TrEMBL record:
Gene3D superfamilies, alphabetized: Glutaredoxin
Keyword Transmembrane helix annotated: no
Region: Disordered, residue numbers: 1-29
Organism phylogeny: Bacteria, Pseudomonadati, Pseudomonadota, Alphaproteobacteria, Hyphomicrobiales
Organism: Kaistia dalseonensis
Keywords: Oxidoreductase, Redox-active center
Skewed-composition ranges (Low complexity): 1-20
Name this polypeptide is given: Peroxiredoxin
């Protein structure tokens, strides 16, 4: 019996590569395309499943850090292979204020294009991509599935991408 290794190294897209465009459902009757966000930094947060404890903690953390991401002019987008109704319930329960996109059908198509689909589980890796305003991947990171990668890597990548965060408030 031959089987693929369970822990094959991820083949996530690397910095300098163009970010593949996609269009995915954000609600049962709305879609979002990566190209809709061009002109601003974009954070793609691929995660395995809405209701898992680590994913819930990760998405809640990003929701708390959202004002920092926005200071850089960055848009955060969560992506998993769950369906739109599952995302809607999860986002409502967690009070999330950023879109969750359903990479549901064809299953994991966008995760595959980014090199972060887990074939045996039918989910994505826990992977992060920071995309620059022109659509190039500036930074990518694949975390072990059971570990919350936090937000420091994203913020560091945004620091190197954007000269200075946009100030909030009025200065003389």
């Amino acid at each position: 019996m031959s089987a693929e290794p369970a822990a094959a190294p991820p083949s996530a897209l690397q910095p300098g590569q163009p970010a593949p465009d996609f269009t995915l459902p954000s609600t049962p009757d709305q879609q979002l395309s990566l190209s809709d966000l061009k002109g601003h930094p974009v954070i793609l947060a691929f995660f395995p499943a809405d209701w898992s404890p680590v994913c819930g903690d990760q998405m809640s953390l990003y929701n708390e850090v959202l004002p920092e991401f926005r200071r850089y002019g960055a848009q955060l987008v969560g992506i998993s292979t769950d369906g739109v109704w599952c995302h809607a319930a999860f986002a409502e329960q967690r009070h999330l204020h950023f879109p969750l996109l359903a990479d549901f059908e064809p299953k994991g198509e966008v995760a595959r294009r980014y090199g972060v689909y887990r074939v045996h589980e039918g989910t994505s890796e826990r992977a992060l991509f920071v995309i620059d305003a022109s659509g190039l991947i500036h930074w990518s990171f694949v975390s072990p599935v059971g570990l919350n990668p936090g937000a420091d890597g994203i913020l560091n990548a945004l620091d190197t991408l954007v000269e200075a965060p946009q100030e909030t408030g009025v200065h003389p």
